[in-house]
Amino acid sequence: MALYEHIYLARQDVSPQQVEALTGQFKTIIASLGGKVSKTEYWGVKSLAYRIKKNRKAHFTLLNIDAPPAALAEVERQQGLSEDVLRFLTLRVDALEEGPSAQLRKRDDDDRGERRGGPRPDRGGERGERRPRRDEPRAEGESF
Question: Where do the structural domains in the chain lie, given as residue ranges?
Fold first, then answer.
């Protein structure tokens, strides 16, 4: 069987419980057609780069799938019919990533405060006095 990474975006006005229910439906379809979902990650509500069907935000969910192509075709067909799914993307991969995805690792880094709001690096000491502007009067003998 082939290995896939599948991401789908659900409308922002559905609840996280409804997104979990959608994910459960897709897992059932895959299992019934001889595949399995090895990892499911709910990334939360994120802002979109541009509007999709009048939505500015969406629920993001990642599925790592080991299934035949027919199972994935059926899941994509069901997602195309669902009004709650805005977009989906499926990539065939050589190996599935173990552990948390890059998106979840990024969120963990942000939660620890390592990326934002930390102290600024030292600027290398005091700054010297600024030069006078051209329209300011200059001292005798001073030039630019």
Answer: 2-93
Is 2-93 assigned to CATH 3.30.70.60?
A: yes
Put residue 106 in one of left, alpha, beta given phi > 0 → left and psi -120 to 50 → alpha: alpha
Q: Are 35 and 1 in contact (CB under 8 A)?
A: yes
Contacts of 88 (CB under 8 A, 6+ apart): 6, 7, 8, 9, 76, 79
Cross-strand pairs, 6: 63, 90
Q: Can you name the residues that pair with 7 across neighbouring β-strands?
A: 62, 89
Are 88 and 49 in contact by the 8 Å Cβ rule? The answer is no
- In the chain the beta strands, taken as DSSP E runs, fall at 2-11, 36-52, 55-67, 85-93
Distance CA 140, CA 98 (A): 72
Which tens digit of pLDDT belongs to each residue from 93-124? Answer: 999 888 888 887 877 777 665 545 555 556 55
Q: Over the stretch 17-75, which tens digit does the pLDDT of each residue have?
A: 999 999 999 999 999 999 999 999 999 999 999 999 999 999 999 999 999 999 999 99
Helix (H, G, I), strand (E, B) or coil at 34: coil
